[in-house]
Amino acid sequence: MSARAALSLGSVQVVDFGVQMLLPMLLVRQLGADDFGVYRTLWLLALSASALLAFNAQGSLVYWIAQRPASSHAGLVANVWAYLAAAAGLTALVVSLWLPGSAMGATLHLPAVWPALFCALWLLSLPFDQIAIAGGQAGTQAALGLLQSLARLLLIGGGALLAGVNGVVWNLLAFALLRTLASAVYARRRFHVSPRALDRDLAGWQARYALAFGLGGSLWSLRAQADGWVAAAWLGASGVAAISVAATVVPLVGMVRQALVGATVSRLAQSVQAGAMGDATALVRQCNLGVALFALPMVGGFVAVAPDAISLLYTPAFHGAAGAARVFAITQLLLAVEVSPLVQALGHGRFALYSSGALLLLGAGAATGGAWALGLVGIPLGALAATLVGSGASLWLLRHRHGLRVRELVPLAALLPLLAVTALACTAAMVAALTLSPGAAPAPMTQRLSAVLLGLGVFVAVYGAGVWLWPATRASYALAWQRVRPRRAAGVGQAATAP
Which residues, in sequence order, are CB contacts of 344 under 8 Å at separation 6+? Predict the structure, then answer.
């Protein structure tokens, strides 16, 4: 897949992120903080069930299909769906039995059948996010992503407007069902999947792979959900609502990285299989630079105006989430030194499993300790600690097992100047925003909006000037532009390649 495919997927992910930002803005006003907490708790249940039981089977399809002949593709996809169906049935049974007598069940004040059914349907819908990428059709995946964003907005937002929290619950079920049906139709047409395509031999190979990388990915995903469970344990449904607002910026950087990885993962797996480690490390380095070029200005601008931005977007009731939001945002910068796709392509399943288990314990412990010592703002320390240690451990593995140095995987010469420019712009923007910010005190929306606009304006001016005046940063953006600009007719019509 080309850089333009990555840009297409990334653009769709940004649109979906915009919808995911818009929905909470609507829901906190339409439902109130308590019912919004119920909505977020439902997602916490579904995402935790997916992390615990899916073993990232849907994501591994991209690797499996890239490494196997076309005759086996239908069996690979059918096996994944058969497993997810079994996991969905188990999830529905466990949730329906556990929830009624639990503290979380009392918080939700919903019949247990609805959370159980939503968790099951969400498990079945997981292939939706990767199925067309696995089929080598980035454009189709982008179209599916746009349709998903539209359905999310209309169903969940419409449900809140028409029927309150009950309407949201019913339409969450419809949303998960639509994802499931769309991915099933695509799999049927692209891979000719049917019940007869189930392959026991392939299933054994997939299971061995999933028990290593899949379980490791599940443990890592559970680490991400641990923040919500810690918030629920210490602060109740209102804590789940607050921590979800604080984590608003997290999906944006992650989705852009997912798009970049999705656009290169097939080539990465093929390069590793062919022994072309130079090509593989170049892909990882380019992906990390792409994340940095996007994440640094976005995170810097958000950190500068977080308190007023959150109060403006999600009402002043969530002003206290700004400190946690800043920690979450800074943590996302570590995605620019991420090498896990290469670790997976090289087959280090045991390392992925053990490190993910250790990072789950580290992250949950740090989040719990942070909540005890600092309250809401301490919970994201779990994410920061786990991400920092995880990235360092992966780099150590590649250095000692494959002789790959950090500078071969992480474009340090480009990242450090970009980081310096971002820090300068963020500091200037924060100082400017403070001149108009009312803090936690009640204030007109126009005052908060003025503080946000002033801060962002100063950030853009200082960051843009720094990028233009510093040759290293200017060269990084120029190189990125060369990789995504449209092809020009030259010679035989080949696109210009970056040096």
Answer: 63, 213, 352
- Give the list of residues 6+ apart from residue 248 with CB closer than 8 angstroms, or none: 21, 24, 310, 325
Q: Is residue 245 within 8 Å of 310, Cβ to Cβ?
A: yes
- Report, as ranges of residue numbers, the positions in the chain whose pLDDT lies below 70: 1-7, 10, 212-214, 483-499
3-state secondary structure string across 90-101: HHHHHHHHHHHH
CA distance 88 to 199: 20
The pLDDT tens digits of the residues spanning 278-307 come to 999 998 998 898 889 988 999 999 999 999
Q: Are 384 and 331 in contact (CB under 8 A)?
A: yes
Which amino acid appears at position 474 of this protein?
Answer: R
CB 321 within 8 A of CB 33: no
> What pTM did the predictor assign?
0.79
Extract the tokens encoding 388.
Answer: 């920092």
Residues 433/451, Cβ–Cβ less than 8 Å? yes
Other beta carbons within 10 angstroms of residue 194's beta carbon come to 11
Tokens representing 292 are 């940095």
